[in-house]
């Protein structure tokens, strides 16, 4: 059996194909709870969602409103025109998994894109909204830039192109940092009032620190069991991030 990693789009198509093989789990509308994990990119939202999904207290939490996911669904169905409500019903029925909790991970940029396409995701009626961000914005920006250059968004994904470190310039890092700051500005103006809990990546990235997860499960009225905490995601930070973090700081302070 080949251990070859798949690209992001290959992984998403495989995911949709796997979902199509599952039985539907249609929740009683009176019991159904909808949870939204809002975040800026590279703030640990995929890892956070993996942990809460593996607890078996929450349905499978992924970026279901990301247009790349929607595109993978269309490719699987061999259709060009997508009925968003049919897509959402498909995702909901395949991912609740007898938990009565439908969970979505959505970046602020995805919210902006959906609004521009005349669909307000907040009309889905989320019962609980949690916001994840990162204290160290510069490390976050470098991580975002690396992912943009390679299309490698998790350690488990095959990069589409090798990382060209010549493209990790102060200008490119600044652009990535600006994207994060602008996303946070949209959050503060449009979405913060809907949020019940704000968490930082630095406070939940190590699973031996459980306060963030305890707060989340308390919020959704589900039992928290430390023994169920696990994740398939591995940390991606490496020497490249450290190097360009220090290079950028030296650039800002005139030591570049």
Helix amount: 40-55%
Cα-based radius of gyration, to the nearest Å: 19 Å
Low-pLDDT regions: none
Listing every helix as H and every strand as E from the N terminus to the C terminus, the arrangement reads HEHHHEHEHHEHHH
Which percent band covers the strand fraction? 5-15%
Which structural class is indicated by helix and strand composition?
A: alpha/beta
Output the strand order for the largest sheet.
Answer: 2-1-3-4
Pfam family, one: Sulphotransf
Protein name: Sulphotransferase Stf0 domain-containing protein
Domain Sulphotransferase Stf0: 36-245
InterPro entries: P-loop_NTPase, Sulfotransferase_Stf0_dom
Sequence-ordered SSE layout with sheet pairings:
Elements: H1 8-20, E1 33-39, H2 45-54, H3 67-77, H4 84-95, E2 101-107, H5 108-116, E3 128-133, H6 137-150, H7 170-191, E4 197-200, H8 201-204, H9 211-219, H10 239-252
């Amino acid at each position: 059996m080949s251990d070859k990693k798949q690209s992001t789009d290959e992984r998403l198509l495989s995911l949709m194909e796997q979902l199509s093989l599952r039985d539907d789990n249609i929740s009683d509308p009176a019991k159904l709870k909808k949870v939204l994990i809002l975040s800026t990119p590279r703030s640990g939202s995929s890892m956070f969602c993996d942990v809460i999904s593996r607890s078996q207290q929450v349905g499978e939490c992924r970026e279901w409103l990301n247009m790349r996911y929607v595109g993978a669904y269309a490719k699987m169905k061999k259709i060009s025109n997508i009925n968003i409500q049919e897509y959402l019903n498909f995702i909901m029925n395949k991912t609740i998994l007898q938990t009565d909790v439908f969970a979505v991970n959505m970046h602020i940029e995805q919210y902006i894109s959906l609004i521009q396409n005349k669909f307000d995701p907040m009309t889905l009626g989320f019962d609980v909204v949690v916001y994840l961000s990162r204290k160290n914005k510069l490390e976050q920006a470098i991580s975002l830039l690396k992912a943009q250059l390679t299309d490698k968004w998790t350690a488990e994904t095959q990069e589409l192109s090798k990382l060209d470190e010549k493209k990790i310039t102060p200008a490119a890092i600044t652009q990535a940092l600006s994207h994060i700051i602008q996303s946070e500005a949209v959050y503060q103006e449009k979405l913060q009032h809907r949020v019940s809990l704000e968490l930082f990546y630095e406070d939940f990235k190590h699973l031996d620190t459980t306060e963030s997860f305890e707060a989340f499960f308390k919020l959704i009225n589900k039992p928290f069991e430390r023994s169920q905490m696990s994740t398939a995601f591995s940390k991606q930070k490496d020497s490249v991030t450290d190097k360009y973090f220090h290079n950028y700081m030296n650039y800002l302070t005139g030591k570049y």
